[in-house]
Design a protein that fits this description.
With about 400 residues, the protein is an alpha/beta fold. The protein is built from 18 helices and 18 strands. Helix 10 packs parallel to helix 12 and helix 11 runs antiparallel to helix 12. About 30% of the residues lie in helices and about 20% in strands. The protein is globular, with a radius of gyration of 21 Å.
Length: about 400
């Protein structure tokens, strides 16, 4: 009897995942960045491509629910009967979701929504990324350390351009967000109205929607995401938030003025990752993954890895060897060329190139690269997001018209 290793076929080590096989964001045809350009194109604002086929409306409200991914909504019809009832008509009746960009994280997605640009252009390609000018990590959600917002993201927002074209434009959100750098560079234009409760936001958004012949209103709710991070999307706390936001959306929908459309969407989904060493790999305790690395950016499901000078190839090889069966591991140029940060072949803006890791790692399996010493708060989160899996990347585009 021959040995199994020589019986007809040679033994092969499993090949690492090919970065080109990652499920790409649908930039230009079905991503979050295509929503507002398509909306204002339907209002007659010149210069915007209509990447999404949406029926025109004179008055449009976009309600973004942080963390409410398509797969999560589909799995919870009892908790969200109103929103769930709209899923079959998602994306102008096709029943299809949109995609977030990469990574599927709040700072990146809100910048894509507000500017109508992919991450490789607007320049917020992660939760934390290296600032090439300082060599330090920049937290793009909390804007720490401080840097000039308009140098970091110089493009005008769709709200600003629509407002200049005569569309009555406003944002209705929590008062704390009014003066944040992320709001300034991603969501500013027209008037900001701070309202504390969800009910106040819904009522005031409907009021502002009917205040002009052409109006664009943006409103936002964050606590679905917050409860998911803290307790997980399999928790009663998360389900309670989903039930609440379902009532908020219905409250807004029932107040729509004539000639209007409401679009309910999200910035990303979420997945619960178990707290065990196989599922949560601790970078701070793993000498192999740390070798040659100067900075670890991004977040647990979507990492930017910055190498010390001359070590990028070695870091790529080690990360592929250790994690390549569970995560898509790409060099910076491979990720850009494959279309992770914009359409394949489009490249990224020069000022953005160095913000992207020498190595970029996106989880396919139920794993996370945590950093318990340097990122204790993030490492304690139950629900995570950032990668291109359907539960993280797919988001709804639910539509209501009066």
């Amino acid at each position: 009897m021959s040995h199994p290793m020589t019986a007809g076929s040679a033994w092969h080590e499993p090949a690492p995942l090919d970065p080109r096989t990652a499920p790409l964001p649908r930039y230009g045809t079905g991503s979050l960045a295509d929503l507002l350009p398509s909306v204002v194109a339907g209002m007659g604002v010149p210069g915007f491509p209509a990447g999404l086929e949406l029926a025109p409306a004179d008055r449009v409200c976009v309600f973004l629910i942080d963390g409410l991914g398509w797969e999560l909504l589909r799995a919870h019809p009892a908790e969200a009967p109103f929103l769930h009832s709209l899923m079959a008509g998602s994306r102008n009746g096709t029943g299809d979701p949109l995609t977030a960009g990469f990574p599927s994280t709040t700072a990146t997605s809100l910048a894509s929504v507000g500017t109508g640009l992919p991450p490789g252009a607007h320049g917020l390609p992660g939760y934390t990324v290296a600032d090439p000018a300082t060599g330090r990590l920049m937290n793009q959600l909390r804007w720490r350390p401080w840097t000039d917002p308009h140098a970091w993201q110089p493009y005008p927002t769709v709200f600003q351009l629509a407002d200049a074209a005569g569309v009555h434009t406003c944002q209705v959100s929590a008062p704390d967000f009014q003066h944040t750098p992320l709001t300034k560079i991603a969501l500013s234009g027209g008037t900001f109205h701070g309202r504390l409760s969800g009910e106040e936001r819904m009522d005031f958004a409907a009021d502002r929607l009917g205040a002009a012949d052409r109006s664009l209103v943006y409103t936002y709710y964050s606590d679905v995401d917050g409860k998911g991070h803290r307790f997980g999307v399999d928790s009663d706390e998360w389900r309670g938030q989903l039930m609440y936001v379902d009532r908020l959306a219905q409250r807004l929908a029932e107040q729509l003025p004539p000639r209007s459309a409401l679009y309910v969407t999200a910035d990303h989904g979420m997945i619960d990752i178990p707290f065990d060493p196989e599922s949560r790999i601790d970078f701070d305790e793993d000498w192999e993954l740390r070798a040659g690395v100067s900075l670890l950016g991004g977040e647990a499901r979507a990492r930017h890895v910055y190498a010390v000078p001359g070590a990028a190839a070695d870091v790529l090889a080690v990360w592929r060897e250790v994690l390549g069966e569970q995560m898509w591991i790409a060099s910076r140029d491979e990720a850009i060329e494959a279309g992770w940060f914009g359409r394949p072949g489009d490249g990224v803006d020069d000022r953005v190139y160095g913000r992207i890791g020498d190595v970029v790692a996106a989880a396919r399996d139920d794993v996370a690269i945590v950093a318990t010493e340097t990122e204790p708060n993030e490492s304690a989160m139950v629900g995570l997001h950032g990668s291109m899996t359907p539960v993280e990347q797919l988001v709804p585009l639910l539509e209501v018209r009066p």
